[in-house]
């Protein structure tokens, strides 16, 4: 679709939602009449004819650089950031749930048993984030992730659903049912987005680490040379007492400068990751929910897994500890939590393995004295 068609539709849609009367005029123009308040906000006259192609006589040309488009942000801000979209047409084919579960689940220290499955209309929540990773360089982009809050799972729709091209769901008004679980979806979507970004960020961090090491090395070499030179002078016999004191001061100053500059290097390479939400999509799809029993030694827990026809696989379930989607899980002894390897890792101080879904810090008393260990992006 041409961008002029897109912007025409967007403008008409937003003006209508803002309360204006919008009609199509000659030559694919748009005739707009708005009440005074909206006219004031958007800087429009009583009657406006808008064209999305240049050179139409008697019409104001609107492209993405037009002031009107900027001002429409005011209308957009008033709409909220959740859009209900109609799913692409997909068929829920029959599945052999027991076999799918056996093939898809990887539990490292326990067993699972398929119990039952049921066809459902599942609610998926898609969240689009703009992200920036800031250090001495910056990287950024946009990431969209789809989660199923009812089963705490992530679906891989990225390449197959473009939410911006889906039609609005006219059934939006009957959307009061709580099963949508938007609130539950939020932390899952954030964790899922972070997990999606982490391979790219890992590369970024690796390059950063190399630059930082190079800078620290150069800095050290530079100051070591000065240090050496001063010490050489100081080691001279029959050095004037005054000169000796001056050189000592210089030595101290050199050490101080090295530390200051070192701190500057550390600061320059400090990493900040920022995720800011752009929009949220809600979409209902025909899916299956599969009930599974998870067993660890003598304990057991029930879990629901989800299959959808777009992704066509059992969706990776969120780790009960960090909420990141997990393909290969561990079960904890006490509560049979479904956790990732990191969330059942050994304590760094005492080496005891513990479940981060049961307790955030090591249950042994020393844990309170430790600094938090989540500063993985730091150094
Ligand atoms: Zn985890
Ligand atoms: Zn410990
Ligand atoms: Zn646990």
Which properties best describe this structure?
379 residues; binds zinc ion; single chain; 4-stranded mixed beta sheet; 2 domains; alpha+beta
A few lines on this structure:
Helix content is 32%, strand content 27%. The protein is built from six helices and 15 strands.
Which helices and strands occur, and which strands form pairs?
Layout: H1 3-17, E1 21-24, E2 30-33, H2 36-42, E3 47-51, E4 60-61, H3 67-77, E5 82-85, H4 97-104, E6 106-107, E7 111-134, E8 138-148, E9 153-155, H5 182-234, H6 241-268, E10 272-296, E11 299-307, E12 317-318, E13 325-326, E14 328-331, E15 338-339
Parallel strand pairs: 3-4, 5-10, 6-14
Antiparallel strand pairs: 1-2, 2-3, 7-8, 7-10, 8-9, 10-11, 12-13, 14-15
Helix pairs in contact: 1-3, 5-6
The structure holds zinc ion (3 copies).
What would you say this structure looks like, in words?
With 379 residues, the protein is an alpha+beta fold. It has two domains: 3-79; 81-104 and 111-318, no CATH class. It is 32% helix and 27% strand. It contains six helices and 15 strands. The chain has helices at residues 3-17, 36-42, 67-77, 97-104, 182-234, 241-268, and strands spanning 21-24, 30-33, 47-51, 60-61, 82-85, 106-107, 111-134, 138-148, 153-155, 272-296, 299-307, 317-318, 325-326, 328-331, 338-339. Strands 5, 7, 8, 9, 10 and 11 form a six-stranded mixed β-sheet that branches. Strands 1-2-3-4 form a four-stranded mixed β-sheet, covered by helices on one side. A hairpin with a 4-residue loop joins strand 8 (138-148) and strand 9 (153-155). The longest helix is centred in the middle third of the chain and has 53 residues, at 182-234. It is flat, with a radius of gyration of 30 Å. Residues 332, 334-335, 337, 355, 357-358 line the site of one zinc ion.
């Amino acid at each position: 679709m041409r961008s002029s068609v897109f912007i025409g539709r967007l403008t008409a849609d937003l003006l209508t939602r803002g309360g204006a009367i919008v009609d199509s005029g000659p030559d694919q123009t748009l005739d707009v009449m708005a009440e005074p308040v909206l006219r004031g906000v958007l800087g429009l006259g009583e009657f406006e004819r808008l064209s999305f192609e240049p050179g139409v006589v008697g019409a104001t040309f609107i492209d993405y650089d037009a002031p009107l488009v900027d001002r429409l942000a005011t209308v957009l801000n008033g709409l909220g950031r959740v859009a209900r979209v109609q799913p692409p047409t997909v068929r829920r084919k029959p599945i052999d749930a027991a076999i799918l579960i056996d093939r898809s689940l990887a539990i490292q220290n326990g067993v699972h048993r398929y119990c039952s499955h049921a066809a459902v209309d599942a609610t998926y929540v898609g969240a689009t984030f703009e992200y920036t990773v800031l250090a001495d360089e910056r990287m950024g982009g946009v990431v969209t992730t789809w989660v199923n809050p009812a089963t705490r799972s992530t679906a891989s729709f990225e390449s197959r659903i473009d939410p911006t091209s889906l039609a609005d769901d006219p059934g939006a008004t009957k959307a009061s049912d709580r099963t949508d679980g938007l609130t539950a979806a939020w932390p899952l979507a954030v964790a899922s987005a972070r997990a999606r970004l982490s391979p790219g960020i890992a590369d970024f961090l690796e390059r950063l680490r190399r630059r930082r090491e190079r800078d620290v090395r150069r800095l050290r070499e530079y100051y070591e040379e000065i240090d050496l030179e001063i010490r050489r002078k100081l080691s001279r016999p029959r050095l004037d007492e005054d000169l000796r004191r001056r050189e000592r001061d210089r030595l101290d100053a050199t050490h101080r400068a090295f530390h200051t500059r070192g701190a500057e290097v550390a600061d320059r390479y400090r990493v900040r990751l920022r995720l800011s939400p752009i929009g949220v999509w809600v979409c209902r799809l025909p899916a299956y929910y599969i009930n599974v029993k998870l067993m660890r030694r003598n304990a057991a827990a029930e879990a629901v897994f989800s299959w959808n026809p777009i992704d066509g696989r059992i969706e990776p379930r969120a780790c009960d500890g960090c909420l990141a989607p997990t393909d290969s899980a561990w079960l904890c002894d006490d509560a049979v939590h479904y956790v990732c390897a990191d969330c059942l890792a050994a304590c760094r101080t005492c080496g005891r393995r513990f479940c981060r879904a049961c307790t955030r810090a090591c249950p042994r008393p020393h844990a309170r004295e430790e600094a938090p260990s989540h500063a993985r992006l730091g150094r």
